[in-house]
Amino acid sequence: MSKIKIIIAVVILFLLLAIFVPGYSKLQKLKSANQDLTKKIEKLKIENIRLTKEAKKLTEDPLYLEKVAREKMGMSKKGEVIYKLLPTEAESGE
Predict the structure, then answer these.
(1) What is residue 79's DSSP assignment?
(2) Contacting residues for 75 by C-beta, under 8 A, at least 6 apart
(3) What is the pLDDT of residues 13-32, one digit of tens each?
(4) pTM of whole model > 0.70?
């Protein structure tokens, strides 16, 4: 009689494991994905703040706008001549 109880207990244990282990595994994967997405959201919030400040500076600060136009877009004032210096062979590592 006790062997039957042990066999029944083992079968029940295996059934419970078969039912709950896949769900637990999926829960762990979802928690990991949630943490990754939370980190990504925080990075995007910081980037959004930086871009908002940048946009504000571009609309409100004419000196900053001129600096960006000159450095990033290669623009110049009327009558200015822009010289681009190319690296020499010694500087370029050839």
Answers:
(1) T
(2) 69
(3) 988 888 888 888 899 999 99
(4) no
